[in-house]
Every structure is written in structure tokens, then in C-alpha cells.
Write a structure and sequence with these properties.
Blueprint (H helix, E strand, L loop, with lengths): L1 E2 L15 H12 L19 E6 L4 H13 L2 E7 L2 H10 L7 E5 L5 H13 L6 E4 L20 H23 L6 E5 L23 H4 L18 H27 L2 E5 L15 H15 L5 H13 L8 E5 L5 E3 L9 H14 L4
Parallel strand pairs: 2-3, 2-5, 3-4, 5-6, 6-7, 7-8
Antiparallel strand pairs: 1-4, 8-9
The chain binds NADPH dihydro-nicotinamide-adenine-dinucleotide phosphate (NDP) and Protochlorophyllide.
NADPH dihydro-nicotinamide-adenine-dinucleotide phosphate binds next to α2.
Length: 362
């Protein structure tokens, strides 16, 4: 972990390093912990700098959101990323102001890394006001499944299970925050919602009876897919997004009243240029942006998408909990309707309970 652009001594050899001790050292050296801000010259009480954790902030939507928040001057961003150098370079290239961010290592493909991340973040000794579960992998061309360190199929393991553990662990930190509006945001997508045209492009999301998830999603003696069917990388991604949206709603039902935390999800628009499509065939990467720009008209730039997610982080008008936000053609936010499966309360409960077992919380 380190703040701003100075690479930490362990950046090149992370395996040999005790990250928690690094955390303590970095804290003293680099982090300007935000404190209560005194009254402004106009006499109005201003809120202290908020602290927002964003996973996958090294590129695409996460980076654009981190930049938008950092540039507002109202947020300190904790960039939770698996590649320190890539993130440091990206933050610098994006022109994020010095002192406005801290990079903390997080590999969502390892539950140990998630637990270590939580410890490291706590050692920063700054309140956690917002958590954004944004990172994702998409493996549409994979013929065979790959697996996380804990043996879960990669897309659901990273996009859903890693984030599930992270969010559950950090809920108590959010609860403890004194920030006026505390939020946990889990990025969803239109392609997980079969009540849309985009969600009806095969392979469609479908969690089925969750038999694969119940069996551990490890592909050994059981399927690597949540519904227990043959592996399909594109479907695994869409299934993971359904889990993301169900998890947000289950959090809302279980914890909104008790904690006052706002739980939200969103579809930021089709950001056709991001690294999400890095594993897709070159022809797709060439045609996808113009197809979305000129045919579906669902395209948004990374910058615009980042502003949208930044709104969900900080806009006083978006405090409603349990909402899946989308934006219309004029870039105005509205509460969108989720598909039948992505709003199935019974399925949400089952996904929650099975996920708890898989990540060792139950
Ligand atoms: P990017 O590929 O640009 O960003 C994904 C981020 O996730 C990267 O920072 C990547 O890190 C990180 N990541 C991947 N695996 C891990 C891991 N194991 N541990 C930690 N971080 C990891 O894609 P997008 O910006 O497009 O995607 C961001 C979110 O937006 C996703 O949740 C996606 O589902 C959602 N979304 C995207 C849409 C689009 O059109 N692009 C549309 C709707 C939703 P690294 O840089 O190291 O690879
Ligand atoms: Mg889609 C309004 C129509 C619309 C929108 C908003 C999207 C978004 N897509 C739409 C339509 C179509 N797409 C149609 C008609 C087709 C068939 C030609 C189509 C195809 C398509 C493919 C092959 N679309 C895709 C793919 C992908 O590989 C992307 C994907 O599913 O990633 C999981 C994708 C996407 N389309 C979108 C969005 C937002 C994506 C990508 C990312 C995501 O959901 O996270």
C-alpha cells in the first residue's frame, strides 16, 4: 500500500512482504487522514472529506470514478487494486491530484487477499464512508473455466464472491462511520437483466436452481456454473452480475434499517472501450464501440460513466437504498426496473446463504 505515485519498496516482490507492517508505515508517511472540516467562510458547516474505497480502480469505470471523486476535492479515494504499478501509473496519467488517493493491494481472486485488504485498510485509521464493488472479469472466449485461489470459477469468484466477502467485512466499518451518507455500491449491468434487449442476447443470465453454487462452483465433481450447466464464460459473467444485483437488494433488506447505510446498484451505460473486453476477439473489440455508438445508442464514454458512478457515491439526491440506477438519453438518473430473476427475493436469500458458506462466513 502506498499513497500517490511513489512505488512502495515491496511493489516488485509482494510475496515476501508483510503487507500489514507496510500499511502502518505508509499510514504515517503518506495519508492525510481527513478530519472534520471547520465552518466555511460563509458560515455554513461543511462535511469533512469522505473516504471511498473503489475496487478495480486501475482502469475503465473504476478509474474514471476515482478521478471524478478525487477532482471534486470532497473525496479521498482508496484504490483497491491487484496491480500496484498499473494503478499508480493510471492515477498519474489521469491527473488525479496528489494526496487525493491511496493505493491498497486487493486481489479479489483470493479470499485471503480480501481479508488482508480489510486489515490493511483498517490500519490506515481513516473512516470508511463508501465502498464501491466495481472490479470485474469477463471471459467470453474461454473454452475451459479458470479458478480463483479458493477454487471458485473465476468470473463469479471475482465479481461476486470476492466482493461478497469484502462487503460483508466492511459493513461494520461503514456502520461505524459518522459520514452523513454512507453507501455500499455494487456495480450491476443491463446484460444480467433479461427484461431488456441487451439481456436477451444469448447466452442469457440464468442462475437456475443454484445447484452449481451450492456444490462449490469448483468444477471438480460439480459444475463451474451457478446453474450446474456446461461452462460458458459469457454466461458466467452475466450470472455474476445477477448475483451482484441480488446481493445489493439482500443487503438492503437485512441491513438498511439497522445501519442507515444506502445500498445501491447501477447500470452506467455501455462503456464499450474499457478493458472489460480485453479477452474478446479483436473483431469484436473493433466493432463493439461503433455498434453501441451508432446502432444501439447505448454507448457512454468512460468519463461520463465515471461521473454517473460518482453521483451514486456522493449525490445527496441519490440516497435512496435498494435502488438499481440507470440514466436516460439526457444523462438524468432514474430508478430502473430489474428483471424477474434479478429481483427474486427468495433467490437473493439463497444466493446470500450459499455465498456465506463458500466464503467462510457461515
Ligand atoms: P475494466 O476491465 O476496465 O476494469 C475492471 C477492473 O477490475 C480493473 O481495474 C481490473 O484490474 C479489476 N480486476 C479484475 N480482476 C481483479 C481481481 N482479481 N482483483 C482485483 N481487481 C480486479 O472494465 P470496466 O471498467 O468496464 O468494468 C468495471 C465494472 O463496470 C464491472 O463491474 C463491469 O461489470 C461493469 N460494467 C461495465 C460495462 C461496460 O460496458 N464496460 C457495462 C456495465 C457494467 P486490472 O487493471 O489489474 O486488470
Ligand atoms: Mg450488447 C439497446 C441495446 C443494447 C445495449 C444497451 C447493449 C449493451 N447491447 C445491446 C444490444 C445488443 N448487443 C444486440 C442487439 C446484440 C446482437 C448483435 C448485442 C451483442 C452483444 C455482444 C456479443 N452485446 C454485448 C456483447 C458482449 O460481449 C457484451 C457482453 O455481454 O458483456 C457481458 C455486450 C454488451 N452489450 C451491452 C453491454 C453494456 C455489454 C457489455 C458489458 C456488460 O454488460 O457489462
Amino acid at each position: 500500500m502506498a499513497s500517490n505515485s511513489t512505488p512502495p519498496p515491496w511493489a516488485c516482490a509482494p510475496k515476501r512482504v508483510n503487507t500489514s507492517s507496510v500499511a502502518i508505515r505508509a499510514q504515517a508517511a503518506a495519508v492525510s487522514a481527513p478530519t472534520a472540516t471547520p465552518a466555511s467562510p460563509s458560515g455554513k458547516k461543511t462535511v469533512r472529506t469522505g473516504n471511498a474505497i473503489i475496487t478495480g480502480a486501475s482502469s475503465g469505470l473504476g478509474l474514471a470514478t476515482a478521478k471524478a471523486l478525487a477532482e471534486s476535492g470532497k473525496w479521498h479515494v482508496i484504490m483497491a487494486c491487484r496491480d500496484y504499478l498499473k494503478t499508480a501509473r493510471a492515477a498519474r496519467a489521469a491527473g488525479m491530484p496528489k494526496g487525493s488517493y491511496t493505493i491498497v493491494h486487493l486481489d479479489l481472486a483470493s479470499l485471503d487477499s480480501v481479508r488482508q485488504f480489510v486489515k490493511n485498510v483498517r490500519q490506515l485509521d481513516m473512516p470508511i464512508d463508501v465502498v464501491v464493488c466495481n472490479a470485474a472479469v469477463y471471459q467470453p472466449t474461454a473454452k475451459e473455466p479458470s479458478f480463483t485461489a479458493d477454487g471458485f470459477e473465476m468470473s463469479v469468484g471475482v465479481n461476486h464472491l470476492g466482493h461478497f466477502l469484502l462487503a460483508r467485512e466492511l459493513l461494520e466499518d461503514l456502520k461505524a462511520s459518522d459520514y452523513p451518507s454512507k453507501r455500499l455500491i455494487i456495480v450491476g449491468s443491463i446484460t444480467g437483466n433479461t427484461n431488456t434487449l441487451a439481456g436477451n442476447v444469448p447466452p442469457k443470465a440464468n442462475l437456475g436452481d443454484l445447484r452449481g453454487l451450492a456444490a462449490g462452483l469448483n468444477g471438480v465433481g460439480s459444475a463451474a456454473m451457478i446453474d450446474g450447466a456446461e461452462f460458458d464464460g459469457a454466461k458466467a459473467y452475466k450470472d455474476s452480475k445477477v448475483c451482484n444485483m441480488l446481493t445489493m437488494q439482500e443487503f438492503h433488506r437485512r441491513y438498511h434499517e439497522e445501519t442507515g447505510v444506502t445500498f445501491a446498484s447501477l447500470y452506467p451505460g455501455c462503456i464499450a472501450t474499457t478493458g472489460l473486453f480485453r479477452e474478446h476477439i479483436p473483431l469484436f473489440r473493433l466493432l463493439f464501440p461503433p455498434f453501441q455508438k451508432y446502432i444501439t445508442k447505448g454507448y457512454v464514454s468512460e468519463e461520463e460513466a465515471g461521473k454517473r458512478l460518482a453521483q451514486v457515491v456522493s449525490e445527496p439526491s441519490l440516497t435512496k437504498s435498494g435502488v438499481y440506477w440507470s440514466w436516460n438519453k439526457n444523462s438524468a438518473s432514474f430508478e430502473n426496473q430489474l428483471s424477474e430473476e434479478a429481483s427474486d427475493t427468495e433467490k437473493a436469500r439463497k444466493v446470500w446463504e450459499l455465498s456465506e458458506k463458500l466464503v467462510g462466513l457461515a
